[in-house]
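FW: tagging you since you asked about this chain on Friday. Here's the raw sequence from the shared folder, copied in full. Didn't touch anything.
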Amino acid sequence: MSALRNTVRALPRGLRLAPAPRRLPAVSVRSFSDHAELTPTPVFHLTETEELLKESVSRFANETILPRVREMDENEAMDKDLIPQLFDQGLMGVEIEEKYGGSAMNFGACIVAIEELARVDPSVSVLVDVHNTLVNTVFKTYASNALKEKYLPRLATESIGSFCLSEPASGSDAFALQTKARKTDGGNGYIISGQKMWITNAAEADIFIVFANLYPERGYKGISAFVVEKGMPGFNIAKKEKKLGIRASSTCVLTFDDVEIPAENLIGQEGQGYKYAISILNEGRIGIAAQMTGLALGAWENAASYVWNDRKQFGKLIGEFQGMQFQIAQARMEIEAARALLYNAVRTKEMGKGFVMQAAMAKLYASQVAGKVSSQAVEWGGGMHFVREGLAEKYFRDSKIGAIYEGTSNIQLQTIAKLLQKEYTK
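HL: got it, structure written out here
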């Protein structure tokens, strides 16, 4: 039984993972005192379940992942012994229902786990993030009952998932897909042909959600989503990319040479894949924001500990110099601001409200802060943080991807601007 499921079952039965919004009657200023007991909570307030999960993941990350981080980065590969432990901890099925073997927790719990993992290793964090917020969510939200019953138990307990949207010619223009799908002659299946690029988790995954255009004449409205399994004839991992950062996380080129899949492997409806991708990526951006805030906090903690405990110049610890203290304080404030945007997006989504702008702001600002703070952290440590013995230079390299994947910084700005324009146009 997983550690997460043990955590959940230790709590009182019926405990809500996120407080439901309360519908209050209209009140006048004069009668406001009648509702004084409704005390607002801080934005970083976590439920009891989320707090216990945070402690559990932090302990696992520091005891089990941390000793492997440097070796995984140098080898540019995830430790194979680590992956089963992620499943054993329940971290690969955070929101999946218990009847499928999942931990049956809420979205906020998933974000807490992603953030805590990134404090130690952003590579492991993104593996867990993509698996949960993209792959599992697609199955939970759009797949048929038959597909849920077939794949969710595997995704919760043993098989890594991969989300295959990007292509050489479709990055920010995500729906300029060249990968095609067509129906088999008998109409009892589909055949997929084409290539995908920049696909996270591809080297470790067994289950792939592949977006392909079934009706090219309809443009993006012909895009559909399919389940492809590792080992299907014609499906290959053509290349594993060598990257600047998050090097233990696999990023691969995939090729589909007339890969035939059964008709039941269609996710949802034909031609609705673009809608599924848009909705899922908006949620995924919150996951990337959590990865970046966790990274920034990890980089800050690593550097702050060094300058306040180890590094001395001119007879005293450099963290005692006022110029250093100003930088350290400013950096921590910006991290907390990024986390406020992150958890605002989380709770907005959990309340069932529109969260597209909140997700874009959280992802954009968190990636900016992660880049800035991890860069400063290298400088604070001097030569010791420039060499590849500690974690400082790795945090810096890992941070750069935050401004690129799941929507570049310019795409986030464009999204925010369009929504603001819609709100303020008369």
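FW: The first strand starts at residue 161 and ends at 164.
HL: agreed, and The radius of gyration is 23 Å.
FW: great, closing this out.
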